[in-house]
């Protein structure tokens, strides 16, 4: 860890003003917001992130941690803690997939600390990224190469990869956000904006170091989930190498609007297998208007991974990803949902 | 001397909560890593990032500019300061024969190339990040070149580690049923919770080292040798150890550097190697390969067993575990062939890790046994029963005791094995495929010379001193129970002191020898006290006048004769002088060879490893055994593997402390799960560097992975192993678990996985 200046945010406006700075991306900016710190401090200790200044946004918690549910949908403040949201009765009842995705992430201690805003901005677990003694990592050091492509890449992505980076997006909650048509409210020194969650993360392409469309100084204030008929019949299935406290090898979000065994509408997102939170429109299209059975589920899974590209260590991932999606689809169809 | 005959009874074998438990849970126990001395300076290591080559140049400008930096050690200013101590497997102390900061040569990734010392930990760390090392790398060999057999590269260093009898190849060819298969186990790291830390402080020419150690006398003597000072000038202190598992036994290269830095600065220096650095600061379990051939007749009787192993070692040392010593005598078999090969690679030197030899070698054999049972359509338990033996098949020496069958019977019953449908894939429960598997656990009974001092006060309290170690194993409790038994006092009156090289020397806490060695030594020291008190008492004019001295026991603060007469301890003691009485013992294992009898205590006091191992215990062989049964569940679609149930039955002679013994076995079974399904240090073979060097990426089971674990202690009496009949069980429980799980996975899925760890992708 290197020396840094620490300050506590006074209010939202001064926080974003203070954090606005020239940098090639928000995540590499020399000024960083400190929320739960479970990603940021970790990466600072291992010298991957080297901010010069931290602005602690926890003083804004009161105004930015609201959890509210009404007819228009669900609002979650960006500073709400993972555990608070996961166990909130409205969330558990109306959006079970959100609650599950949060409960299955990290550990109880981390969930008590970590915020939703920090959660969606958590960084890849690519071991070459996380250890600065590996010189080649385009995400850490643009243009230096990628150690993982021909290295150890069991945990790496098979969807959305580029020649420059194949790192998987590790988070669980973001899969629920992207599946459920969520939007993100953002405050910035140049004004506030609201974007679909699907516009927040960027594919690695040839700039894997630019992970989101946030500018330096922009602060996520809130997530909004619209009310939708498929929200209640939803689930998160996380397949991993141990029972708890582990990132997904493959995961799936499915939210289903089912009428008489026929798919009226459906939302599908895939975790552990893609470079960004990944909604699979191809899989959704394969099911919309069709009965949901084993063979249809299999076809949707095929469609979901049709463009998958593997790198040796992760050759098994398309097959596991398909199995995960099929299992999730069949399980969600069987759910008993009270209206 | 038969000490057990004179025991008061009732203490050894009494279930007792760990006597140091309260200290530990309240934080009162001071581990070496907790030590912070006044005016301490902090050290941080800089490691090589190449596996082979030379350092060309250091650029320390930026690092030295960091506020608070006091000193930076590199080979340029430290060369020649650390003297060579021989490699511990070759009669020295060091975990590797590479001398720290001796030259620009790089032997392996993660080698210490510099150590920064600063006013604070933070400054040292920041400066360490700023040390620039320019080096030239050469192509490095990561380990085995291919997955299959390697050329034999080094002759074995220990005689007798490749047991053979008969003509295994011919017998194999002639066998009705044959199994011929390869197995592998991965690189693994101990990852004890207490990191590799060292604090050194000089007082004049006297050095004190606070370092978590499972061999304080080795640490003291080895460090003295490296620093070129007399051993009595070094004191090593390690009263509690937050896990060691073999990695804190031999002297690592960090310690001398901290001592040198402390001397140069003339103030205490503390080093905390990070979790990541720990992967190469100390040792590890290297990957292994095995070729097993089993031949049997139709009734399941083994006719031929051949086991060839390949192990990875460093360029500098020829470490190997050679587990065929054990696999050759597990079952009756007239024809046995074994061989062990070392493959040298550009890696740090491996070392002991809980059940070093048995974990990989027994995995291979017990997997093959399950394959044989399947080929014979025979129950795997029955196959073990048919091939059980009372003697070593190699030289017909009898086992001192062997309760393998009883262990199988007890564990099978507790597990409900009779309800098993033998057909693979037949026991589905909902979406989960259920598999049941079993395997044999075994571990040699090793015993070492040990010394102990016991001081008994007139008020009936006693102090037991020996430089043994409690790695979390329960040593404090077992030793206290033994002393309480032989002194005839309550457990609360016993105060045990361990883990300090100023105490009478005790052996390395390794090879599961500690309980047997130290408790026998303590019993003898107590006997020394009893004997002196008794002889004085019978010659005196007191109550015990004329009684038979040998029949007098210590009981509840009194001396009691066989005919019921008794005398207060106070009175007996006063006869021998003022105050407490001290008993001392130099225990030599009853089964020790002549050289150990003659030289054992000299070697012990020099901190050199000396031990009578289970396969060379006089006219018999001595082993502890167990049988382990597991249930695994594999999801029918996504193939996650879970282990909801483990049952192990173990027989290990006399159990001194059943509560902590059970904890040992419980933990061992859990580690067995890790060894089958989770643990693997991954190597990027392009550059021979480890990749998953922290606990986020190096997987171990979490609480949610462990459900029902049942430990059964099977009673066993063995008067041959040592006077107290103790076998030791610290390493018994995690032997065979990996095989039991692989066998259960086969039963669940019909897939035979021969390469550990077993992961989702192996079953898709
Ligand atoms: C051991 C471990 C295991 C884990 N396992 C899982 C898992 O299984 N599943 C999973 O999903 N996650 C997992 N995580 C990740 C964890 O969920 C994230 O670390 C956490 O959610 C981050 O939230 P935080 O509030 O601590 O973020 P911080 O560390 O405080 O911030 C992270 C980044 O986001 C920025 N930031 C924070 N808040 C905002 C905001 N409101 N607006 C703009 N920028 C902001 C910060 O500047 C920083 O760059 C794990 C983490 C650890 C350490
Ligand atoms: S996959 Fe991405 S994060 Fe990993 S080494 Fe390559 S560029 Fe870096």
UniProtKB/TrEMBL annotation, chain A:
Annotated InterPro entries: CO_DH_flav_C, CO_DH_flav_C_dom_sf, Diverse_Substr_Oxidored, FAD-bd_PCMH, FAD-bd_PCMH-like_sf, FAD-bd_PCMH_sub1, FAD-bd_PCMH_sub2, Mopterin_DH_FAD-bd
SMART domains: CO_deh_flav_C
Transmembrane domains' residue ranges: none
UniProt keyword terms in alphabetical order: FAD, Flavoprotein
Domain (FAD-binding PCMH-type) ranges: 1-230
A Pfam family matched in the record: FAD_binding_5
Protein name per UniProt: Xanthine dehydrogenase family protein subunit M
From TrEMBL, chain B:
UniProt keyword Oxidoreductase, yes or no: yes
GO MF, one annotated term: oxidoreductase activity
Domain Aldehyde oxidase/xanthine dehydrogenase a/b hammerhead residue range list: 26-139
Keywords annotated in UniProt: Molybdenum, Oxidoreductase
SUPFAM superfamilies recorded: CO dehydrogenase molybdoprotein N-domain-like, Molybdenum cofactor-binding domain
InterPro entries for this protein: Ald_Oxase/Xan_DH_a/b, Ald_Oxase/Xan_DH_a/b_sf, Ald_Oxase/xanthine_DH-like, AldOxase/xan_DH_MoCoBD1, AldOxase/xan_DH_MoCoBD2, AldOxase/xan_DH_Mopterin-bd_sf
Pfam assignment, any one: MoCoBD_2
Gene3D superfamilies linked: Aldehyde oxidase/xanthine dehydrogenase, a/b hammerhead, Aldehyde oxidase/xanthine dehydrogenase, molybdopterin binding domain
Oxidoreductase found in the keyword field: yes
Protein name: Xanthine dehydrogenase family protein molybdopterin-binding subunit
